[in-house]
Amino acid sequence: MDGHVSEASGTRDKPIESEERLRKKIKQPRERNYGSTSNDVVVVNPSQSQSQPQDHRPTETDDDEEKEILKYGAKHVIKLFVPVTLCMMVVVMTINSVSFYTVKDVYLIYTPFHETSQDTGVKIWNALANSMILMVVIIIMTVLLILLYKNRCYKIIHGWLIMSSFMLLFLFSYLYLEEVLRAYNIPMDYPTALFIMWNFGVVGMIAIHWQSPLRLQQAYLIFVSALMALVFVKYLPEYTTWVVLAVISIWDLVAVLSPRGPLRILVETAQERNEQIFPALIYSSTILYSIVGTTTPGTETGTETRRLNDNQDADQAGFNQEWASTTRQRVQQRQIEVQANDQSHPTQYRTVTRPPSDNLTEAQRHQQQLEEDERGIKLGLGDFIFYSVLVGKASSYGDWNTTIACFVAILIGLCLTLLLLAVTRKALPALPISITFGLFFCVTTSVLVKPFTETLAAEQVFI
Question: Which residues are the active-site residues?
Answer without folding.
Answer: 252, 383
